[in-house]
Amino acid sequence: xxxxxxxxxxxxxxxxxxxWFKFPLLVFFEDARAVFKLDSIGRELLGMAVPAxxxxxxxxxxxxxxxxxxxxxxxxxxxAAGVSITLFNxxxxxxxxxxxxxxxxxxxxxxxxxxxxxxxxxxxxxxxxDINNNIGDDDESDTVEKNxxxxxxxxxxxxxxxxNKAKNKSEKKKKKEKKQIASASTALIFGTILGLIQASLLxxxxxxxxxxxxxxxxxxxxxxxxxFLKLRALGSPxxxxxxxxxxxxxxxxxxxxxxYVIVSGYSLNVALDPILIFYCKLGLxxxxxxxxxxxxxMALALLVLLMRKVNLSPPSTKDLQIxxxxxxxxxxxxRVVAVTFVVTFAASLATRLGPITMAAHQTCQQVWITSSLLxxxxxxxxxxxxxxxxxxxxxxxxxxxAVRILQITFVMGVGLSVIVGFGLGFGASIFxxxxxxxxxxxxxxxxxxxSQPINALSFVxxxxxxxxxxxxxxxVSLVLVSIVSVGIEFLLYKAKGYIGIWIGxxxxxxxxxxxxxxxxGTGTGPWRFLRG
Length: 532
Fold this sequence. Notes:
Mean pLDDT: 78
Distance between the termini: 19 Å
Number of strands: 0
Helix content: over 70%
Structural class: mainly alpha
Number of domains: 1
Shape: globular
Order of helices and strands: HHHHHHHHHHHHHHHHHHH
Low-confidence stretches: 1-16, 123-150
Radius of gyration: 27 Å
């Protein structure tokens, strides 16, 4: 009852101080001038978002560098790597994003509730009020009162000293104790199982999957792509374990620790690329091997660091929250399958247009994903902050944080649009020396650049939905958007070919963004407090 009253009071306070309650859509424009204000909310969000963005961007940046190295082997190798990497990434997303998103929200929520519980159990030490009250009731002489006061003061001083020593001792002990977060253990179990399933699927079904993507049976692209995909699939368990551990650290609002590990791991990946590809003459397989080695080293490093912070052995199997993970993870898996299908379908359409078109599409798509995922750091930050705010029923902070992050995202998206437009326009030759490939890259890059603000907002709205534990809406809305988008992509591909594919992808991202705006902008679901 106390929590409900506190929640109602918070909403009433918000309602009395803001004009946007009747029109929740207006909340997106609130305090727009303070978009980069470094107050407590700004510092918390940016302090998490910057390291998270750098960590999230490390993988696609490494893949981008892989693409640049592979592009200098030849256009067929680039096309084979392109279709294989697309398959691997989309298969990973089906398992990774539900796992990481659910883990971040659950760990943040569980950690917050434990802190609240510990605070409630740590009853404050009374200041001997009972003793003082008893003295006031006595009718003894002044001498007796003075002596009594002296004894009380002495006892109070001694008691206070002992209490402070005990408090300091308990605080030191608490710092040494590892956290007991059942959600962390559950995430690692799911990460291991899903990683093994993904590796098995990609190894044993590599050829059928590549044929399904549009590779022709007699094409050299199929032979090279199959070898590349099978070797890279060996790293699947490490990929999923590393990302599930990133989700745990994010739940603790720690995005810096994973950053150091990830940057080190991918730096090794980039260093191994020229050695294995050119010096050891392993070619395309060298690029795959460099990725696998770096992934296993990253997973090992993150596990060692996590074990110092968290007790990964749960008290009992009941604490693992298996069914809660399955329920919400299943919803997000349906969502990611739909999203993955749209991007994979676009790649398969490009593959059907031939190796030259697929090579250009792979380059544009890799830049598109890399630049857009920089905003994923903002999504990570807002997810953790909102999960904690909703657990505390601090709706004022939830609203202010969500609005601030969305405003920052839009400004950043516009900046990315300019940077990508100029960068890809002048630097396309980094990825290929083939004139026909460069020609198609230049056709696709205006769409890659122009869609950056839309893409950024789409990714951050995902973080907003996950932070509010609005998993059902996130799943249902994106499934509907994806069904519509696949139809649009196919029609535009038939009418406009390669350009039609990119127009379709831009429309798809715009629909994703509108789905995010609709939920919060109409004040429905977890955001109904915006309507009063």
